Amino acid sequence: MELSDFFPIWNQLTPAHRAMLTDGVFRRAVPKGTVLHNGSMDCTGLLLVQHGQLRAYILSEEGREITLYRLLEGDICLFSASCMMRSIQFEVMIAAERDTELWIIPTDSYKTVMEHSAVLSNFTNEVMAARFSEVMWLLEQILWKRFDQRLAGFLLEESALEGTDVLKITHEAIGSHLGNPREVVTRMLRYFQSEGLVKLSRATVEITDRETLRRQYAI
C-alpha cells in the first residue's frame, strides 16, 4: 500500500501538504509482540498498517488488560499520536499481534498539516469519532452483555480474523482481550465444551458448533 491509499482525501490536499506528509513518513517492520506505544506520554506518531495486525488495549491498576479494538491492513492509529490533541490523554497501549509492516508519520509533521488543512482536520476527526464509537460499543458490551455472550462473540470474531475454527490462543490471552481473569475464561470455556460448542486442548480452542454458538450466545 502507498501512503495515499490510507487517505481518501489525499487528492484534496495541496501539493505542499502532500509533500510534507510524504517527506516525513518512514517505514518500520515489527515482530509479533512488539509494544509500539506505551500510554499518553509516548508520542509515537501516526501508525498506518500496511500488513499485519495491531491491538489497542488499556491496563488496569492491577495490571489486567482489556482490548479496545484491533487495527488491520489499511487502518490508521491516531491514539499513538494523541499528544497532538491536547484534550485527549488516554493511557492506550498499542502492540503488534502479528508481524507487522507500518508507515509512521511523525506527530509534528501531521499536526502542522492538520492545523493548516481543514480537509485533513475533518478527516482526522472522522477517524477519531469512529474509534470512539468502537470504544463505546465495547463499554456497552461490558455493561450489558453476559460474559458467555462476550466470550462467544470474541471466539467468532477471532475465527473470522484467523480464517480457521482452530484458534491457537491461551485462556490467559483471551482474558487479556476481554478484561477477565483466566479462571473465569477457563470456567466458561469448559462449560462451552460440555455443551459441545468447543473443544479444548493445550493453548488451543477449536470451535466445533459455530451455528449454535452464534445463535444461543453471540447475539
**Rg, Cα atoms, Å:** 19 Å
Low-confidence stretches: none
Number of helices: 7
Strand order of the largest sheet: 1-8-3-6
Largest sheet: 4 strands, antiparallel
Strand content: 15-25%
Mean pLDDT: 89
**What overall geometry do the principal axes of the alpha carbons give?**
elongated
- Separation of termini? 35 Å
In short:
The chain has 219 residues and is of the alpha+beta class.
Secondary-structure blueprint of this entry?
Elements lengths: L14 H10 L1 E5 L4 E4 L7 E6 L2 E6 L5 E7 L4 E2 L15 E4 L3 E6 L1 H10 L1 H27 L2 H16 L3 E2 L3 H8 L3 H13 L3 E4 L2 E4 L2 H7 L3
Helix pairs in contact: 2-3, 4-7, 5-6
Key terms:
219 residues; 23% strand; elongated; alpha+beta; single chain; four-stranded antiparallel sheet
